[in-house]
Amino acid sequence: MSTDIFRKTYTNTVEEPLDLIRLSLDERIYVKMRNDRELRGRLHAYDQHLNMILGDVEETVTTVEIDEETYEELYKSTKRNIPMLFVRGDGVVLVAPPLRVG
Amino acid sequence: MAVANLLLRTIAENSMVVLLQGLQGEVTTVDLRNESTARGRVVNVDAFMNVRLEDVLYRDRRGKLTRLQDLFITGRNVRYVHIPDHMDIMKTIQSQLAKIHRVRNFASHGGGRKEYSKKK
């Protein structure tokens, strides 16, 4: 069994998309997740699956309620704060610097 | 059997699952994909993020609470794992990796199959 494939190499240049995430280590980031969830937190660690450790996280869950009579869409968002969170990578849709509102 | 363990250790060592493996014995909350949560003591986490919890308070998506002695969660069903405040993440990861490397070196002691040549 070749053992070279298990050896990690750390480069200084940006070569692949995951390297861009490496640039955000220890920075606050915005993570869009499946099921209408968003996370804002400090990126402490990540891996190739996009499993991540986020600190000081704010999770926003957005739901749409449809009014029975008027068929109006009411968007509600629920937030909660978690000091340190491990996020499983398969739920992650995108990773970006925090969105600036306004 | 030894080959299977080598594979599992290698899968774990190359991802963040090692941190979860270092959570053994800690009480944590696991948020599941189905919007339910399970709070209990971590018995074991494997390379695929399958989690075994004991003494669990399971809250379903409606908020209904159930006490469970033993709960096995498939890795695919994990959304979040809450990390206890007091944990030092880097230290935990490093000690988990050290354990893996110790096992690896132990296996190659005495002229056994070397998994990789030692640097330094």
UniProtKB/TrEMBL annotation, chain A:
The lineage of its organism: Eukaryota, Metazoa, Chordata, Craniata, Vertebrata. Its main location: nucleus. Component of the precatalytic spliceosome (spliceosome B complex). Component of the U4/U6-U5 tri-snRNP complex, a building block of the precatalytic spliceosome (spliceosome B complex). The U4/U6-U5 tri-snRNP complex is composed of the U4, U6 and U5 snRNAs and at least PRPF3, PRPF4, PRPF6, PRPF8, PRPF31, SNRNP200, TXNL4A, SNRNP40, SNRPB, SNRPD1, SNRPD2, SNRPD3, SNRPE, SNRPF, SNRPG, DDX23, CD2BP2, PPIH, SNU13, EFTUD2, SART1 and USP39, plus LSM2, LSM3, LSM4, LSM5, LSM6, LSM7 and LSM8. GO terms for molecular function: RNA binding. CDD domains: LSm3. Pfam families: LSM. Keywords: mRNA processing, mRNA splicing, Nucleus, Ribonucleoprotein, RNA-binding, Spliceosome. It is found in: Nucleus. SMART domains: Sm. Gene3D superfamilies: 2.30.30.100. Residues 16-101 form the Sm domain. This is U6 snRNA-associated Sm-like protein LSm3. Belongs to the snRNP Sm proteins family. InterPro entries: Lsm3, LSM_dom_sf, Sm, Sm-like_LSM3, Sm_dom_euk/arc. One of its GO terms (cellular component) is U4/U6 x U5 tri-snRNP complex. One of its GO terms (biological process) is mRNA splicing, via spliceosome. Plays a role in pre-mRNA splicing as component of the U4/U6-U5 tri-snRNP complex that is involved in spliceosome assembly, and as component of the precatalytic spliceosome (spliceosome B complex). The heptameric LSM2-8 complex binds specifically to the 3'-terminal U-tract of U6 snRNA.
From TrEMBL, chain B:
It comes from the Eukaryota. Signal peptide: none annotated. One of its GO terms (biological process) is mRNA 3'-end processing by stem-loop binding and cleavage. InterPro entries: LSM_dom_sf, Sm, Sm_dom_euk/arc, U7_snRNA_Sm-like. It holds the Pfam family LSM. GO terms for cellular component: cytoplasmic U snRNP body; nuclear body. PANTHER family: U7 SNRNA-ASSOCIATED SM-LIKE PROTEIN LSM10 (PTHR21196). This is LSM10, U7 small nuclear RNA associated. It comes from Sander lucioperca (Pike-perch).
